[in-house]
Amino acid sequence: MNSALQWLVLPRKSNTLYVADLGNTRVQIFSLNQPSTGGTTAVFKVVEPNKIYVDDDDDNTEPTIYIAVFVGNRVEKWTKGATHGVQIGDECRSCSGISVDREKNVYMSESDRHRVLKWSPRTNTTIIVAGKTDDRGSSSEQLSNPEAIYIDQSSGIFYVADSHNNRIQKLTKDSLDAVTVAGSKTDSPGTDVGSLADPTGVWVDEETKVVYVADTLNNRVERWLPDASKGDTIAGGF
């Protein structure tokens, strides 16, 4: 595998690891039941697969892979056996985050335009659900180069790694006004336990609401408890 490994996904219902192998322009699958050095290519010839989301909620069908294609400015949907992806929604410029809710709405981070979009498969329309178009800022209604998205499937609340504001934002599906749940209340990066520096990944325990953050420039993974003013390092940070 090329050294430019970009993103890992372990779906809820399978014991399979999906890897965005950016340097080799593909998505690889590895079975955790049969660990080995070899994987299976599920998606190929996708230039810079920045983030991926694997939808395995339907027990009667094979998992569907959604890819945020950074260079191609789009989201692609790949079903098993496909030889090419299908574009979802409109252009997603510098697409850097992807997630799907239980109604199959697709959320995508449009990094260069400082906003998160939601595409509806029922209406084939796209709306803004976080940030303001081409309006970088650090207020509760603004974002600055958003990256990963995590959706709480039970509530519809979603979380955004607001990378250049060095924070994680939480939003409801009916409001553009976000709450900071990890990182500094200012937009400044930091190395202390109350700060983040260019966070690019976020995952949430939907039962405990604990937030886990890929704190990129600090080379660590941080855990933030609900309503905490600081996190603790659970990996890296050396």
Automatic annotation (TrEMBL):
Keywords, in A-Z order: Glycoprotein, Repeat, Signal
InterPro entries, A to Z: 6-blade_b-propeller_TolB-like, NHL_repeat
SUPFAM superfamilies to which the protein is assigned, alphabetical: NHL repeat
Segments annotated as NHL repeats: 136-174
Protein name according to UniProt: Uncharacterized protein
Source organism: Rotaria magnacalcarata
